[in-house]
């Protein structure tokens, strides 16, 4: 006769495994922004939800930056201590031939102004109400290129294979966006502007960085102007001053 206690223990383990599996893979959803009237109430809810996420991720980036600076001050020729960050920030060997690793990393491992992140999230997700935000926690219009990696756009051109990335949580979407700005070649102009601001002792704010985002959207310069208008109209630079 089977051992009843053994069977109960096995069943309990299986149940816990299933619960853990669902807990790990379950999606975290943001507030229902559609529940707030369009205008000041929805904006306040949107900014209140996303600003702490951006601030926390910026703290993590600042920690990376601090560790990189310490390693560089210790021995700028020893890349062993920098390997982790070279991978994380997507530095390629060709770049290391052109300039020192420390210079490249310190240009990449830097904060994304809260004002800029909030403006882009609002712009790209229609204040959190877009299909991709609701279904995939994608608040920044980020693409992926493997079949099944995300949501297929209804208006995708024939022959195109991209999908709109699907994230487990809004925070994961924000993190992916911030790393995209810090890694992708398309945003070198943004990183150069940010480096200049830091070298001059200015607050790193979203308004000047919008001029480095012409390749983020097919709208080019008009996209940057739209973001500047959003930042100014909503006084989003107050978040930059508060988190500096």
From TrEMBL:
It holds the Pfam family Glucosaminidase. Keywords: Cell projection, Cilium, Flagellum, Membrane, Transmembrane, Transmembrane helix. Residues 106-231 form the Mannosyl-glycoprotein endo-beta-N-acetylglucosamidase-like domain. GO terms for molecular function: amidase activity. The chain crosses the membrane at residues 6-26. The keyword Nucleotide-binding does not apply. It comes from the Bacteria. The keyword Lyase does not apply. InterPro entries: Bax-like, MGlyc_endo_b_GlcNAc-like_dom. This is Flagellar biosynthesis protein FlgJ.
């Amino acid at each position: 006769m089977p051992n009843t206690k053994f069977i109960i223990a096995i069943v309990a383990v299986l149940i816990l495994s299933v619960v853990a599996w669902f807990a790990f893979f379950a999606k975290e959803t943001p507030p229902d922004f559609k529940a707030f009237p369009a205008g000041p109430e929805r904006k306040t809810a949107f900014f209140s939800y996303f600003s702490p996420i951006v601030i926390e991720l910026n703290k993590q980036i600042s920690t990376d930056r601090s560790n990189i600076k310490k390693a560089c001050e210790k021995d700028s020729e020893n890349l062993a201590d920098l390997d982790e960050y070279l991978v994380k920030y997507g530095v390629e060997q060709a770049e290391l031939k052109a300039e020192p690793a420390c210079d490249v990393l310190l240009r990449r491992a830097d904060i994304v102004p809260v004002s800029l992140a909030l403006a882009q999230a609002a712009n790209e997700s229609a204040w959190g109400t877009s299909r991709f935000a609701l279904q995939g926690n994608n608040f920044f219009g980020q693409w992926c290129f493997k079949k099944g990696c995300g949501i297929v756009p209804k208006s995708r051109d024939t022959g195109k294979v991209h999908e709109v990335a699907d994230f487990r949580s809004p925070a994961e979407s924000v993190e992916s966006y911030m790393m995209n700005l810090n890694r992708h070649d398309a945003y070198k102009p943004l990183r150069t502007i940010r480096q200049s601001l830091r070298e001059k002792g200015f607050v790193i704010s979203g308004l000047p960085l919008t001029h480095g985002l012409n390749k983020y959207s097919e709208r080019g310069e008009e996209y940057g102007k739209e973001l500047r208008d959003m930042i100014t109209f909503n006084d989003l630079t107050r978040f930059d001053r508060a988190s500096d």
